[in-house]
């Protein structure tokens, strides 16, 4: 019965051709870890020694090689110096923000990599069948030398002469096989072709995966991990990403904001309506209301002038509404650092939102509403109210200086008129210090002087007739740039 069972289970007892190799997995894991940790370390150290936050905010050259010229007034210069000092600060480089988390993770990765390298299994060279090495002859040896070496080796390892050496029989068989591989034509042909005098043999392949993956006692754990990763974790990541992305329209604005603007905006919407629209956007309502807002906003609410009566009264909308009015009416000195951060976040979201407002007006053929949106966008960028003079953009200019500048001889009603004047003709500078006058001179040198040229034409036609599709080409030139 035992012989019958052995006959039919011989294939099951045979050594598998494909096996999981723990040592190969360790080498594979070390290689992948090294290829991951090394570039990660390079970019982390590059960010630490050469911070890019300042260069991104204040670049020196464009991609085409043109040189940026930043404003050289005292306030802008001090702001750049503060940002540069903040970026150059050692603690900010290495541990500012989430940098310390990255450095800690990188340190743990290097420790794990060194541990893997220290505990790598010892490499064993793959042994091949070499008859010349077994018989201890040169590859260029003649048949006579091979036979002589065979006689000596066979006498040396013959089992009858080495009764107490259990390995002598195996060595004797190996010597005989080596002699056969070098003298027998068939065995020699097999050796030259397959590296084995007996012909092709089975090839055993090892996979660079740990052996415990196929062990019976870990099967439930391995299957559970694969189930959680493939059927739970990956779908959850995709669902979370999709749920987040579907909130945004292709132009980067929240779909909620787009729906709100489409519902509330009308042909009669004007500049006075848009601060409330912006404060009621989804980006604005996603911000958090703090307990200190009631105290810190009180003075801003008292001094800000409302262009119209508010319709929406949610706390976050009211706070952001007065922050926008405070920005447009230049009440920044009344804002705390926390409120200024909230205003910066709101202004960052205002550009795509006002772009969306303009697109709605253009698609609806609301010319006056579209013009009002552009005016509102200009007010946000320049920090001006719709009724404020553009001269307030000049450094150190107050409402009194603006009134003085707009009266009498050499009066300048707008900023463009002020820029066209010679430095000696400019008014409103009498009570200012030399440093303040230098700031104004630097501002006038830096601010853009735009020249606009518009051309209407029909492509490939010399004349325009009724029914043609005309193209309007607008060219803006900054005349103060070289």
Automatic annotation (TrEMBL):
<dbReference type="GO" id="GO:0003723">
    <property type="term" value="F:RNA binding"/>
</dbReference>
<dbReference type="Pfam" id="PF02889">
    <property type="entry name" value="Sec63"/>
</dbReference>
<dbReference type="InterPro" id="IPR001623">
    <property type="entry name" value="DnaJ_domain"/>
</dbReference>
<feature type="transmembrane region" description="Helical">
    <location>
        <begin position="218"/>
        <end position="242"/>
    </location>
</feature>
<dbReference type="InterPro" id="IPR018253">
    <property type="entry name" value="DnaJ_domain_CS"/>
</dbReference>
<dbReference type="Pfam" id="PF00226">
    <property type="entry name" value="DnaJ"/>
</dbReference>
<dbReference type="GO" id="GO:0008320">
    <property type="term" value="F:protein transmembrane transporter activity"/>
</dbReference>
<keyword id="KW-1133">Transmembrane helix</keyword>
<keyword id="KW-0472">Membrane</keyword>
<keyword id="KW-0813">Transport</keyword>
<dbReference type="InterPro" id="IPR036869">
    <property type="entry name" value="J_dom_sf"/>
</dbReference>
<feature type="transmembrane region" description="Helical">
    <location>
        <begin position="95"/>
        <end position="116"/>
    </location>
</feature>
<dbReference type="GO" id="GO:0006620">
    <property type="term" value="P:post-translational protein targeting to endoplasmic reticulum membrane"/>
</dbReference>
<dbReference type="InterPro" id="IPR004179">
    <property type="entry name" value="Sec63-dom"/>
</dbReference>
<protein>
    <submittedName>
        <fullName>DnaJ family Sec63 protein</fullName>
    </submittedName>
</protein>
<keyword id="KW-0812">Transmembrane</keyword>
<dbReference type="GO" id="GO:0006614">
    <property type="term" value="P:SRP-dependent cotranslational protein targeting to membrane"/>
</dbReference>
<feature type="transmembrane region" description="Helical">
    <location>
        <begin position="25"/>
        <end position="45"/>
    </location>
</feature>
<dbReference type="GO" id="GO:0031207">
    <property type="term" value="C:Sec62/Sec63 complex"/>
</dbReference>
<keyword id="KW-0653">Protein transport</keyword>
<feature type="domain" description="J">
    <location>
        <begin position="130"/>
        <end position="195"/>
    </location>
</feature>
């Amino acid at each position: 019965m035992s012989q019958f069972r052995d006959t039919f289970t011989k294939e099951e007892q045979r050594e598998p051709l494909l096996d999981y190799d723990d040592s190969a997995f360790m080498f594979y894991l070390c290689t992948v870890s090294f290829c991951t940790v090394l570039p990660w370390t390079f970019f982390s150290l590059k960010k630490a020694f050469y911070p890019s936050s300042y260069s991104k905010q204040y670049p020196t050259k464009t991609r085409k090689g043109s040189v940026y010229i930043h404003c050289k007034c005292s306030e802008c210069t001090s702001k750049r110096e503060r940002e540069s000092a903040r970026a150059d600060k050692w603690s900010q480089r290495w541990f500012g923000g989430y940098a310390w988390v990255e450095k800690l993770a990188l340190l743990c990765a290097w420790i794990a990599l060194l541990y893997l390298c220290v505990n790598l299994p010892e490499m064993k060279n793959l042994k091949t069948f070499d008859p010349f090495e077994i018989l201890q002859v040169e590859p260029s040896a003649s048949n006579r030398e091979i036979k002589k070496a065979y006689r000596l080796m066979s006498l040396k390892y013959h089992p009858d002469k080495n009764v107490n050496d259990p390995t002598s029989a195996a060595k004797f068989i190996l010597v005989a096989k080596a002699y056969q591989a070098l003298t027998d034509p068939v065995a020699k042909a097999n050796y030259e072709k397959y590296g084995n005098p007996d012909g092709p043999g089975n090839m055993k392949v090892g996979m660079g995966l740990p052996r415990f993956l196929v062990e019976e006692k870990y099967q439930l754990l391995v299957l559970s991990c694969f189930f959680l990763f493939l059927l739970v974790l990956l779908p959850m990541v995709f669902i979370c990403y999709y749920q987040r992305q579907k909130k945004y329209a292709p132009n980067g604005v929240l779909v909620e904001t787009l729906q709100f603007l489409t519902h509330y905006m009308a042909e009669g919407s004007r500049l006075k309506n848009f601060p409330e629209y912006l404060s009621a956007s989804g980006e604005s309502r996603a911000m958090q209301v703090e307990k200190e807002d009631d105290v810190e906003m009180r003075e801003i609410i008292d001094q800000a002038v409302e262009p119209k009566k508010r319709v929406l009264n949610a706390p976050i909308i009211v706070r952001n509404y007065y922050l926008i009015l405070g920005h447009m009416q230049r009440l920044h000195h009344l804002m705390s650092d926390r409120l200024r951060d909230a205003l910066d976040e709101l202004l960052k979201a205002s550009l795509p939102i006002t772009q969306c407002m303009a697109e709605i007006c253009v698609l609806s053929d609301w010319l006056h509403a579209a013009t009002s949106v552009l005016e509102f966008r200009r007010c946000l960028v320049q920090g001006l109210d719709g009724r404020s003079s553009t001269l307030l953009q000049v450094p150190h200019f107050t409402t009194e200086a603006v009134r003085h500048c707009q009266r009498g001889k050499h009066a300048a009603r707008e900023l463009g008129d002020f820029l066209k004047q010679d430095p000696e003709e400019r008014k409103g500078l009498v009570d200012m210090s030399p440093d303040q006058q230098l700031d104004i001179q630097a501002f006038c040198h830096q601010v853009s002087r735009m020249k606009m040229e518009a051309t209407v034409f029909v492509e490939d036609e010399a004349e325009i007739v009724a029914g043609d599709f005309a193209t309007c080409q607008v060219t803006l030139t900054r005349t103060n740039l070289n």
